[in-house]
Model the fold of this input.
Amino acid sequence: MNAPQGHAAAQPLPHYVSDAPFDPSGSDALTPEQERFYLASQWKLMLWKLRRHRVAVVAGVVLALMYASTLVSEVLAPYHLHSRHTDFIYAPPQEVHWMHEGRFVGPFTYDLVRTLNMETLKREYAEDRTRPRPLRFLCSGDPYRFWGVVDASFHLVCPGEGGTLFLAGTDRLGRDVLSRVIYGTRISLTIGLLGIALSFGLGLVFGGIAGYYGGWVDNVIQRVIEVIRSFPELPLWMALSAVLPVTWSPLLVYFGITMILATLDWTNLARAVRSKLLALREEDYTTAARLMGARPRRIIARHLLPGFMSHLIAAATLSIPGMILGETALSFLGIGLRPPITSWGVLLNEAQNINVVALYPWLMLPVAPVIVVILAFNFFGDGLRDAADPYR
Done:
């Protein structure tokens, strides 16, 4: 019994590793798809994973279209921002028709006939169906100054000759609500971008300093952040907005509101940057850069921040809706942007009276783009946050 066991023990163990030279073109070679994946950059991996997030892609397309519309607001709006139609005050939304007396005409509107109800003293409008007013496309309409520089009158769609086109009704001065919403998109969306750009910079600077140096520097910055976060957000916004001089021009008020929103929103981003840098500053490549004489500013900007910049961009994207809601809330309460600047919050300011809302509900239309943009940013931000870790 022992001999066979000893004989078996003397046999060499089987060798499962091939000693043949490595052939890059053989079975051990990577497929083109594998090679493309392993050699891809972090941003490309992030883009590939984002594409698989259907809801985030749709939200990104919606945001891209809305921001693109801000470049040509004057062209998209049927009327000029300040065009008044005194014969159609508080006119309800007009319906676009296609058929007239059983005959296809194309998109058109009927004339509005106004009457005064002597019992309720309310203006009432009815359609005069005797004559259709075909809409005009790529047409000449109300004159305007494109971006305040070039005089033009080109519009994507215009009312028919002698007709009107109030797709979202009119306000108390007879101004087209839809045109004002389109113009307000430029202000409400850009204030979010400018605000997050300033907030992003403050968060990177203070969060980077606190995370890299630590010690008493970190303690001071963290106490400042805690003091800022201890104040109720909306009352603090209101107090700071009320400080803005009433003699300021609309442009200065715009930048003042932007700075107020940004200086109060950088704390979350600063804490995220700090927590990351506290972990990364002890890595070997950080120590190597320090021993080679790199300055702290270069170590933070070139070695530490790029490692988690994708996460920071996702966090910043989720912060933009807060900026937009902040401006809308302040303007709605009458302490934010003021006419002649037009934003969604300024438009909603006219709908504060419940009687007005009950009689003319179309004045609440500016809340619709606010809801769409906030949802789109949240969905897109969630997709970016998931795609920021493409190996997960």
